[in-house]
Design brief:
Elements lengths: L1 H16 L8 E2 L21 E4 L11 E7 L7 E4 L5 H18 L4 E4 L10 E4 L3 H8 L17 E6 L2 E6 L2 H16 L2 E4 L2 E5 L4 E4 L2 E4 L5 E4 L7 H6 L13 E2 L6 H4 L17 H9 L12 H17 L5 E3 L15 H4 L3 H30 L1 H19 L17 H8 L4 E7 L11 E3 L5 E3 L10 E6 L16 H14 L5 E6 L16 H11 L1 E7 L10 H13 L5 H13 L3 H17 L17 H17 L3 H4 L1 H24 L1 H4 L5 H19 L13 H15 L1
Parallel strand pairs: 2-10, 4-5, 4-6, 6-8, 13-21, 14-15, 15-16, 16-19, 19-20, 20-21
Antiparallel strand pairs: 1-2, 3-11, 7-8, 7-12, 9-10, 17-18
Length: 730
């Protein structure tokens, strides 16, 4: 206890000398009038936007042209998109139009046109216009506008004379480039679903743009809070769904093998041999019917998975990834009784190659067959039907013996051409969860710290991506590369082992404590470094699972914002991002919230907290004095906004709700650990007072969120648990 008090005392003294100040931002007075033009105003300016006359803070110098974008409510500029512009590009144009009006007071027209490039024209060209193609032909733009060069969603912004060209390799690059134009020119940014910001600059001079912006990851996704607000996700460049530009995975489920690649969970797809029921026949064909055991070495598992894979790719020839992955609690066959018929070698293969090696060998075999099929899908039909008849005649076994059974997949000439033109890759899990033996790479650990493949058969095919999912293998309290954290040191060793086999990775990573969403953990310790680790090993699609289907967890708006920013650029300035978010999101309360964050992060460091993905509330992670100090900072935040209660009631309510969300996180911890933190003689006074306050706060916020993963762990349930704890102490 002495160590903690001394360290925190030093911390608080430092804080007194290191207090930072924030500029204030005033709420805009009214919405600009909607102007009609040739493109529908589908994206309207937000009631939650704020405007400021302060210039946007930039760490890099900005060069300006001599051209005026707008002055005194007028502009000579127009926005040009192509006649065939997609809905996404049209929404980008409307966004630029609306925010241009917000920033300058001037109405800028959106025009669908195939006009030619002329450096003297005052236009902002967005997307694949003739202006762009002319500029490329004239070698004014020499940068290849390809997904390979721009990592799928990157873009360029160029000032060419009086003309501005915004272009990506696809519609989402065009959209993100438009966002960047607005940010650099006017400071426009969305911080949360109900908070946007823009500088008010009635006289705006055009920046001399020479921007190429390439994301660190081609696809960036996080769930939880973002799932409820698609426009927010879109503007933070988070694309957790195909509708927002995410990579296309088929099947779209993360766990696929039982749902899609074996017959109906091996229940009723096949007919049994005489005298056997369906489940018996399927058990002998695809693995023992024990829980989720599955035979990866049965030739029938291979035949059926191959058939299903072809069906998915015929239906989705534009897929980015064919996903063949284990179930959440998937175990593997350890040897089945019908080995002579199925060819099962699981018992020996498991001992030799480990679970991960068995999955790679299975996927590699599928990939080779699919890539061969892709060359001439129509000719493959007769070949597979003949193989089916041959298998049936040779074994007499009924694994596919019904009227629908066949190895062949019918395909039309039109479908075949689309399949031949497909550019998909493949993926499978390296999974750390229950039954997650696949997280460990199938390698030999050498004495010198290097790794050697068990043999060449477990090296992933060049088109196979390992989806890194470190569930229960990671510590939320530390960065992956923190050498002082044994859990993450072990994780890093496995990533190094995987790198000895392949450089193709995606992620299904985690930013969540499923057992308690409200417990504090120092996310700022790891958000950027973890992104850098994933970037360094070559991750293509960077997805993080958060509090799925839940709008709120501890500091979720800040954490989602920082994830989005560091996923786009792993070298972004984390300190500047954090300060900017707090200033815009909490306004006058930002200094107090900053002290709260810094204090709790320090507590976790001193306490040597190691929080896993399933860590129920534990009083040892904090002391009562820690939580009291944290609550004092939150009360300071409330005091800082009181002036708005009369002068700006709408702003006051918005800020009050934000701070109240933070308050319930600390109150949740205080009350769940009351017996440890406080004298039980105070239960009837202090304890019940806090309980009633939390109940009132939740009534104010609404309780449509959970404090943990399971559906029954609602905030109402948390209140019931707290009442039971306090009642038991009386």
């Amino acid at each position: 206890m002495k160590k903690l008090n001394k360290a925190l005392s030093v911390f608080l003294l430092v804080m007194l000398f290191a207090m930072f100040s924030f500029g204030s931002a005033c709420k805009k007075d009214e919405e600009p009038a909607s102007e009609s033009n040739s493109v529908s105003d589908s994206f309207e300016s937000s009631d939650n936007a704020s405007v400021s006359e302060e210039p946007v803070s930039e760490s890099e110098s900005v060069d300006y042209t001599d051209d005026v974008l707008a002055d005194n409510g007028t502009t000579g500029y127009s926005i040009v998109i192509s006649e065939s512009a997609s809905a996404t590009v049209q929404s980008a144009a409307v966004l630029v139009k609306n925010q241009f009006k917000e920033a300058t007071g001037a109405t800028i027209e959106v025009v669908k046109s195939d006009k030619s490039f002329n450096e003297n024209d005052k236009v902002i060209s967005i997307g694949n216009t003739k202006i762009l193609s002319d500029a490329v032909s004239a070698k004014k733009i020499t940068e290849p506008l390809t997904e390979e060069n721009l990592n799928r969603h990157g873009y360029i912004i160029r000032t060419l004379g009086k003309t501005v060209v915004i272009a990506g390799a696809n519609e989402w690059g065009d959209y993100y480039g438009s966002l960047e134009f607005l940010y650099r020119q006017f400071g426009y940014e969305m911080f949360a679903h109900d908070e946007t910001y823009i500088n008010y600059t009635p006289r705006s001079v055009l920046i001399d743009f020479n921007v190429k912006d390439v994301p660190s990851f081609a696809s960036r996704g996080i769930d939880g809070y973002t799932q409820s607000y698609s426009e927010y996700s879109k503007q933070l460049r988070i694309n957790s769904s195909e509708a927002l530009g995410a990579v296309k995975e088929v099947p779209g489920d993360c766990h696929t093998i039982y749902k899609y690649f074996v017959p109906n969970g091996y229940s009723t797809y096949t007919d049994a041999k005489d005298g056997e029921d369906d489940s018996k026949a399927n058990s002998l064909c695809f693995g023992p019917k024990k829980g989720n055991d599955f035979c990866l070495t049965s030739k029938y598992s291979y035949y059926y998975a191959l058939k299903s894979a072809k069906e998915f790719l015929i239906e989705n020839p534009d897929a980015d990834f064919l996903n063949i992955s284990q179930e959440d609690t998937g175990e593997l066959c350890r040897g089945q009784e019908n080995k002579a018929v199925t060819g099962c070698t699981c018992e020996n293969d498991r001992a030799k190659y480990h679970s991960s090696g068995m999955w790679i060998r299975f996927c590699n075999k599928i990939i080779v067959a699919i890539e061969e099929w892709k060359k001439d899908p129509m000719a493959d039909v007769a070949k597979q039907q003949a193989l089916f008849e041959q298998e049936k005649a040779a074994t007499g076994y009924a694994c596919f013996d019904n009227e629908k059974a066949t190895f062949a997949v019918p395909i039309t000439a039109e479908q075949a051409e689309k399949v031949k033109a497909g550019h998909w890759n493949y993926e499978t899990f390296a999974y750390g969860g229950v039954g997650g033996e696949t997280f460990n790479a199938p390698v030999i650990n050498n004495a010198d710290g290097t790794y050697t493949p068990i043999d060449n058969t477990i090296i992933p095919d060049g088109k196979l991506y390992m989806k890194i999912a470190p569930l229960e293998r990671m510590c939320l309290s530390h960065a992956f590369d923190d050498e002082n954290c044994d859990t993450n040191a072990s994780l890093m060793a496995q990533l190094k082992a995987w790198q000895s086999l392949t450089h193709n990775f995606n992620t299904w990573s985690y930013n969540v404590n499923y057992s308690d969403y409200l417990m504090w953990y120092p996310y700022l310790n790891g958000v950027q470094n973890n992104a850098r680790v994933y970037k360094n090993i070559g991750v293509y699609s960077y997805f993080i699972q958060s509090c799925t289907n839940n709008k709120y967890s501890v500091m979720s708006p800040l954490y989602n914002y920082l994830y989005a920013k560091t996923a786009w650029d792993v070298n972004a300035n984390l300190g500047e991002l954090t300060d900017r978010f707090l200033e815009r999101y909490y306004r006058d309360a930002a200094p107090a919230i900053k002290k709260y964050i810094d204090y709790m992060n320090t507590v976790c460091t001193i306490k040597e907290q190691h929080l896993g993905n399933y860590q129920g509330f534990d009083a040892r992670f904090y002391d009562g004095a820690d939580l009291d100090r944290a609550m004092a900072y939150i009360e300071e935040a409330f005091l800082s906004i009181e002036k708005y209660e009369q002068s700006d009631p709408s702003l006051y309510e918005k800020l009050k709700k934000r701070i109240t969300y933070d308050k319930i996180c600390i109150r949740h911890c205080q009350l769940n650990g009351y017996a440890t933190y406080y004298d039980i003689s105070t239960v009837r006074t202090q304890g019940m007072k806090w309980y009633n306050e939390m109940k009132e706060d939740l009534e104010y916020l609404g309780t449509s969120f959970n404090y943990a993963e399971a559906w029954y762990k609602t905030m109402e349930k948390d209140l019931e648990n707290i009442f039971s704890i306090l009642n038991g102490l009386m």
